[in-house]
Design goal:
Number of strands: 0
Largest sheet: none
Strand content: under 5%
Distance between the termini: 40 Å
Helix content: over 70%
Order of helices and strands: HHHHHHHHHHHHHHHHHHHH
Number of helices: 20
Radius of gyration: 23 Å
Oligomer: single chain
Length: 500
């Protein structure tokens, strides 16, 4: 049960000096454990990203996006329908937990109301499991309360550990995604280890490899939080080696993951061509970063938009021609981002200094904390439509899978370039211009039209209506929101076009 902030404030002052000394991964697990439990839930210990609103409405985006996907029951994905319902109900329960947290923390009410508000998410989630997913009452109660309480704890420790990195809403989206992935991974790996069949389909094999790799990376991150001794360089690299062995040699596929990956990459010449193209883009990215660091100046908005262009070049060919390869590449990229960020935060030699220079050079106003939020959000925002779709490579809805690229890679980039060059008329007190908003909408519609003309994205009248509506709404959100648009816009676009 959440503690009252009025009670917490009596204890937070004495612990603030200690808390301020720990941040990043170390901040989640404090060097000195406080014996006073109320301080754990102190709002004063939570430092949301400055110069931004709470963004509480973001907590609704993930469950809405997952709920819309339930409308599209592809024949190939019927075996995963139950898991989709579990994830959707779980996301809804976590969103309700966030809203109840806001009520509990910011609204002055009596103790009885606070108790009811604290219990409400677990009760509602349990009922939803029982009625919508058709589970046993025991499963519903245990999983419902375990899901919401686990989310609550992780959410609070995220806000405390990564001070200044997230708004309340942004943290909600990140933690929801983390808990949903852990739930899905435990279900998939647990089912396999408890007598499940070997994956046979090409995509199922790749998915098992990626889930296994990211799950063990998550376990490694938790170990770093719980056991500070692992942060010493030699121990860190030793455990990284063991993690690599677990990822490549753990018998979750037949043949072993490493051999299965080699076979997959060598099976098709076009696949190899796209892989080489991806590697060239990685080299180009590294050259761009090195050039920017060498210039000894901070990257401006137009330079940072180069990465938006590069990610468009990665995702569109991948989704159209090699969806399975792109799906695998998103997992590899996320794992690489996490490892590099850990190296930077923990100052692990010999890469920490170069990574710190890159962070300082490309840091923008939304990277207010120690966490490099913007690049993570760019990758996650473009990849979420693929990750949230049960069978992304079935070819059933390419438009929805392109939501992140259209909203961030095309629309946001056009709005930034046109707005900075030609923007004269501002939206009230917003720094965004009407010209930039118009460029956002027009660029998306033009991109979709070109994809349709090339025969790459099948469009219907309903899909065109949804695309126009999604582009308009995303453009308005981009113009007025102070949240990280790389994270917000893909979810909004994905939800709206998913209704078509």
């Amino acid at each position: 049960m959440m503690r009252s902030p009025e009670t917490d404030s009596e204890h937070s002052e004495s612990g603030s000096s200690t808390d301020s000394q720990s941040s990043g991964l170390g901040g989640v697990h404090h060097k000195r454990r406080s014996t006073r439990r109320p301080d754990v839930f102190s709002l004063k210990a939570m430092a949301p990203r400055p110069n931004a609103g709470p963004g509480g409405w973001l907590c609704l985006l993930v469950p809405l996006a997952l709920g819309v996907r339930l409308l599209h029951d592809a024949p190939k994905c019927r075996d995963q329908a139950r898991m989709q319902w579990i994830l959707t109900v779980s996301a809804g329960g976590m969103a309700l937990e966030t809203l109840c947290f806001f009520i509990y923390a910011f609204v002055k009410t009596g103790i009885l109301v606070k108790c009811l508000v604290s219990l409400l998410p677990g009760v509602v989630t349990s009922l939803a499991f029982y009625l919508l997913v058709d589970t046993s009452i025991t499963f519903a109660v245990i999983v419902g309360f375990l899901m919401t309480s686990s989310y609550q704890q992780i959410y609070i420790y995220t806000m405390r550990g990564f001070k200044g990195s997230f708004t309340y809403g942004e943290a909600s989206v990140f933690v929801q995604g983390l808990v949903l992935f852990a739930t899905s991974a435990i279900h998939q790996l647990g089912g396999f280890l408890c007598g499940g069949s070997w994956p046979t389909d090409e995509f199922e094999i790749l998915n098992m490899i990626m889930v296994n790799a990211l799950f063990w990376l998550l376990v490694f991150c938790l170990a770093l939080v719980l056991f500070p001794s692992l942060r010493k360089p030699y121990r860190f690299y030793l455990w990284m080696l063991q993690l690599l062995l677990a990822v490549t040699c753990m018998p979750v596929t037949r043949p072993l993951p490493l051999l299965a990956l080699i076979q997959f990459l060598l099976r098709d010449r076009d696949r190899l061509s796209i892989l080489v193209f991806y590697l060239l883009l990685v080299v180009l990215t590294c050259i761009t970063v090195a050039w920017q660091i060498g210039s000894a100046s901070k990257a401006n908005t137009r330079v940072r938009k180069i990465f938006h262009l590069l990610i468009v070049l990665v995702y569109i060919p991948g989704l159209v021609y090699e969806c399975a390869l792109l799906y695998l590449a998103t997992g590899v990229a996320l794992a690489a981002f996490v490892v590099l960020e850990i190296l930077r935060l923990l100052k692990i030699p010999p890469f920490a200094d170069s990574l710190a220079d890159a962070f300082r050079s490309f840091k923008d106003e939304k990277d207010a904390g120690e966490l490099a939020l913007t690049p993570f959000c760019l990758l996650i925002g473009c990849s979420m439509p693929i990750w949230m779709t049960a069978c992304p490579c079935s070819g059933s809805d390419t438009l929805a899978l392109l939501s992140g690229i259209l909203a961030v890679g095309v629309g946001d980039t056009a709005a930034s370039v046109v707005g900075s060059k030609l923007g004269r008329n501002k939206w009230g007190k917003s720094s965004r211009s009407l010209e930039g908003t118009a460029a956002f909408v027009v660029s998306i519609l033009l991109a979709v039209w070109l994809l349709e003309m090339a025969g790459l994205v099948p469009m219907t009248q309903a899909k065109w209506f949804a695309t126009i509506f999604a582009a308009l709404n995303s453009a308005l959100v981009e113009a007025f929101t102070d949240q990280v648009d790389n994270l917000v816009l893909p979810l909004i676009f994905y939800t709206i076009v998913g209704m078509a």
